[in-house]
Amino acid sequence: MATSQRVHMGMVSLHCLLCGHQTAEVRLPTAALDRLTLRKALAEADLETQPRWDALGLPLCPRCSGRLLLDIQPLHAWSNDVPAKGAREREIDLVK
Prior knowledge:
By secondary structure, the protein is an alpha+beta fold. The protein has helices at 35-45, 87-95, and strands at 8-16, 26-29, 52-53, 59-60, 68-78. A hairpin with a 5-residue loop joins strand 3 (52-53) and strand 4.
């Protein structure tokens, strides 16, 4: 598969620098990440960690009303890659 057809994924969450609140982590494509996609994914993830959204669509902390910052942890895999034969066995060897 060509590189241009791959979709790079990341673990995305929001966190507050003032009080330390963090939303659930969701796996999303990072290339075309927008507020609407993030809002929909977080709405399906965990009700207890939901951010509040202001009139402009900016995420606010439900505890202290501070602005939440975006945190993206890149994944080392592409969403549409098929693991090579024997990849699971090699991962097990690396963990040992």
